[in-house]
Amino acid sequence: MRQYWWKIVTIILLLYTFLGGLLLEVPRLNILNETIRALYFHVPMWFGMIILLTVSVVYSIRYLKSNDLTLDAKAIEFANVGVVFGIFGILTGMFWAQYTWGAWWSGDPKQNASAIGLLIYFAYFILRGSIENEEQRARISAIYNIFAFAALIPLLFILPRLTDSLHPGNGGNPGFNAYDLDSKLRLVFYPAVIAWTMLGVWIATIRIRLRNLEYKTL
Question: How does DSSP assign 139-201, residue by residue?
Answer without folding.
Answer: HHHHHHHHHHHHHHHHHHHTGGGGS--SSTTSTTPPPHHHHT--HHHHHHHHHHHHHHHHHHH
